[in-house]
């Protein structure tokens, strides 16, 4: 049975954030709010937790397209190849925000992702998500939680999320109602930015 923790996004309670970080460090899985939909995440450096998420999603870990949720741009350089000035300008303009950027991965990627040529990077505009990552000291590997309901697609009510996931994950954070629109995905690994999925983020800024 997982814990159901209320955290306020305007001013996240440090003790509650520490509880979440402790669970992540111990290989736990956490459902947490972002600036778009709720996400399912684990510590990027914990192999067992990564395997658990892949199993839940019904995919092989090396085939998974998970996002790396970072605190800010300084985190990003640990996992992606050196980025040019124009790419950096795009990232700086858009982040934190409701975007996932696909960038060329570097040799520092965790062993589970070594085969991947690109990685998806997120810096959500949500204090809860960013504080967890800041305190943890490294990114969370994350995936959106979908709903079987084809009309809704994403569950936005934390209590309903807890009801569904309480026996699968270790913590569900109630950070208020989520959004039911996913992030905009933009591929920056080629010559020109390419919009892969139009979501919550405004694509006119590129």
UniProtKB/TrEMBL annotation:
GO terms for molecular function: double-stranded RNA binding. NCBIfam families: L-threonylcarbamoyladenylate synthase. Residues 14-201 form the YrdC-like domain. It comes from the Bacteria. PANTHER family: DHBP SYNTHASE RIBB-LIKE ALPHA/BETA DOMAIN-CONTAINING PROTEIN, THREONYLCARBAMOYL-AMP SYNTHASE. PROSITE patterns: YRDC (PS51163). It holds the Pfam family Sua5_yciO_yrdC. This is tRNA threonylcarbamoyl adenosine modification protein, Sua5/YciO/YrdC/YwlC family. InterPro entries: DHBP_synth_RibB-like_a/b_dom, Sua5-like_dom, SUA5_domain.
């Amino acid at each position: 049975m997982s814990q159901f923790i209320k955290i306020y996004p305007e001013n996240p309670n440090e003790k509650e954030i520490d509880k979440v970080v402790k669970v992540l460090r111990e290989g736990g899985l956490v459902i947490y709010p972002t600036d778009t939909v709720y996400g399912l995440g684990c510590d990027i450096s914990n192999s067992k937790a990564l395997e658990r998420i892949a199993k839940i999603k019904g995919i092989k870990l090396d085939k998974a397209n998970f996002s790396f949720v970072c605190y800010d741009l300084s985190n990003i350089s640990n996992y992606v190849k050196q980025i040019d000035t124009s790419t950096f300008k795009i990232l700086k303009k858009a982040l934190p925000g409701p975007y996932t950027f696909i960038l060329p991965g570097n040799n520092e990627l965790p062993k589970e992702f070594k085969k991947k040529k690109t990685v998806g990077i997120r810096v959500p505009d949500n204090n809860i998500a960013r504080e967890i990552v800041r305190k943890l000291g490294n990114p969370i590997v994350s995936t959106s939680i979908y709903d079987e309901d084809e009309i809704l697609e994403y569950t936005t009510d934390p209590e309903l999320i807890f009801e569904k996931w309480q026996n699968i994950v270790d913590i569900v954070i109630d950070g208020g109602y989520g959004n039911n629109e996913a992030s905009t995905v933009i591929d920056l690994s080629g010559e020109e930015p390419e919009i892969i999925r139009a979501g919550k983020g405004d694509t006119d800024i590129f």
